[in-house]
Design a protein that fits this description.
The protein starts with a strand and ends with a strand. The radius of gyration is 13 Å and the shape is globular. It is mainly beta. It is 0% helix and 52% strand. The strands form two sheets. Strands 2, 4, 5, 6, 9, 10 and 11 form a seven-stranded mixed β-sheet that branches. A four-stranded antiparallel β-sheet has the order 1-3-8-7, with no helix packed on it.
Length: 121
């Protein structure tokens, strides 16, 4: 089993920054693809960013150029640096792990409990 715990969410004004962290424990592996997803009230969970086992990355168009994902396989952590935040970025953000390099939530086997990000205008 793999456990994921997110932290770093909070309330920030538009244009501000937040850094989300995800600590991976249990059956850890640098072979997992790690993803960040988000879900706003009344909306489906959507892909935000992912980082593969070779540290290749991919981003949703809506966050490209503003968000940056990174991983530390020694500390078993994944970080999402979010800059130039907008009110539409408000959502619960989830960290997830998968054996597949995918942007689809259904392909992720393990999920954290989520952390709330609220961006005020």
């Amino acid at each position: 089993q793999v456990q994921l715990v997110e932290s770093g969410g909070g309330l920030v004004q538009a244009g501000g920054s937040l850094k989300l962290s995800c600590v991976v424990s249990g059956r850890t592996s640098s072979s997992y693809a790690m993803g960040w997803f988000r879900q706003a009230p009344g909306k489906e969970r959507e892909f935000v960013a992912l980082i593969g086992w070779t540290s290749n990355t991919a981003y949703a168009d809506s966050v490209k150029g503003r968000f940056s994902i990174s991983r530390d396989n020694v500390k078993n952590t994944v970080t999402l640096q979010m800059n130039s935040l907008k009110p539409e970025d408000t959502a619960v953000y989830y960290c997830a792990a998968s054996w597949r390099l995918s942007t689809r939530p259904i392909d992720y086997n393990y999920w954290g409990q989520g952390t709330q990000v609220t961006v005020s205008s």
